[in-house]
Design brief:
By secondary structure, the protein is of the alpha+beta class. Among the domains are: 4-87 and 121-190, no CATH class; 283-379, no CATH class. The protein contains 14 helices and 11 strands. The strands form 4 sheets. Strands 6-7-3-8 form a 4-stranded antiparallel sheet, with helices on one face. Strands 9-10-11 form a 3-stranded antiparallel sheet. Strand 10 (263-268) and strand 11 form a beta hairpin. The radius of gyration is 25 Å and the shape is globular.
Length: 379
């Protein structure tokens, strides 16, 4: 395989002979060029949350720090990341998911379901990625910041990145020929945009039956008002939409519960209630109290976990139970009970009330003297 230095020169030549806008954007070339690069090492991530562990496959993480394409990959993520705002199903966090589910009034005869894409990143072909993102840029490119580049320039550079992902394992270096690298800057964005292309063709057909369809990368949550037979028709069409992409599914249990992200979602009284979900394989361990880190870090750990519980549990009973379980886990790790309780109170006090923002206007001329104080006085 080519050396990193050869890859650097290949990128420089690629910029010279690409589109007109890219040839003129010398500052972008300087920004994206990496000197003295190296081949990043592949890392294995064990899927220890799976019931079949340790017999399941190892997930290969391909980070690209200091690789020949690392800065270009980062730059493209700044452009393409703006397109996620135009994905109707896009969920950026658990808090965003809770907010969006809470905005919908649910009928009484509905049920929850979840979908999961099998091996999403390795299943995305480079052709499908370029086709999906090219279509999205044509539709929404005029609504985002392109940093002076044309759509053709962005797709050419993205093709270069996808075709020149290199990683080492042992004494050998490998170049990825199919799929998107897990650990790259553009990886999640490409996956999101590809699934948008796949799912939008199908979901529109069932818009009157699927009252909610939200997705966090390859994990989808939905609420269905039709029959089970009609829902299976949706699953079948999604699985038939592309030969390389397959979906597994799950429906809520008899108690109206389903797990999604780090939540257990319970459908009752035409609304969804949330509690924290911990996988059966969770070790229930935190940082040891004897660890050689500052007390500020240990306090922040308690406050952060408490804030997550208060935000993600929708009822007082669920919140109280989760906080009690959290205290037990911290005390098992050696944390003093009074230290945990004290920081729980501080965390509770700090998350109350809306956030306040302050704006200071810089001095420009004598005519504007005192205007910032006047704005502050009037609120």
């Amino acid at each position: 395989m080519d050396s990193p230095r050869h890859k650097e020169n290949t990128f420089t030549d690629y910029c010279k002979f690409s589109g007109k806008a890219l040839r003129q954007a010398t500052s972008i070339q300087r920004l994206c060029w990496t000197g003295y690069s190296s081949v990043p090492q592949a890392r294995g991530l064990a899927k220890d949350h799976k019931p079949e562990f340790p017999e399941c496959k190892l997930r290969i993480i391909q980070p690209n720090p200091n690789s020949p394409i690392e800065k270009l990959d980062w730059f493209l993520s700044r452009i393409l990341g703006q397109l996620t705002a135009f994905i109707p199903s896009y969920v950026k966090s658990t808090a965003d998911f809770i907010r969006r589910v809470g905005e919908v009034h649910l009928p009484s005869d509905c049920f929850q379901f979840s979908l999961d894409v099998v091996d999403l990143y390795p299943s995305i072909s480079i052709g499908l990625a370029l086709e999906s993102i090219g279509e999205d840029l044509l539709e929404n490119g005029n609504k985002i910041t392109m940093f002076g580049l044309h759509i053709a320039d962005v797709t050419l550079l993205l093709e270069f990145v996808l075709k020149h992902t290199i990683t080492s394992f042992g004494k050998y270096a490998y170049q990825q020929r199919h799929g998107v690298a897990i650990g790259s800057h553009c990886g999640r964005i490409v996956a999101d945009l590809v699934l948008k292309k796949v799912e939008m063709r199908i979901i529109h057909k069932f818009a009157n039956l699927c009252v909610m369809y939200l997705r966090y990368v390859d994990d989808t949550y939905g609420i269905w008002v039709g029959s089970v037979i009609q829902w299976f028709a949706l699953v079948d069409e999604l699985n038939a939409s592309h030969p390389d992409i397959g979906f597994t599914w799950e429906r809520q249990n008899e108690d109206g519960k389903i797990n999604f992200l780090d939540l257990t979602c319970t459908l009752e009284h035409e609304r969804v209630e949330f509690t924290l979900y911990r996988k059966p394989t969770a070790a229930d361990t935190y940082l040891s109290w004897e660890s050689h880190v500052s007390s500020e870090v240990k306090a922040a750990l308690v406050k952060g976990e408490a804030a997550r519980i208060r935000r993600n549990c929708s009822t007082d009973a669920a919140r109280s139970q989760a906080l009690d379980e959290m205290r037990t886990r911290f005390e098992r790790s050696g944390f003093p009970a009074d230290f945990v309780q004290r920081n729980l109170k501080i965390g509770k006090r700090r998350i109350r009330g809306p956030a306040r923002a302050f704006l200071r206007i810089p001095f420009i001329s004598d005519g504007l003297t005192g205007i910032d104080e006047e704005i502050g006085t009037r609120g």
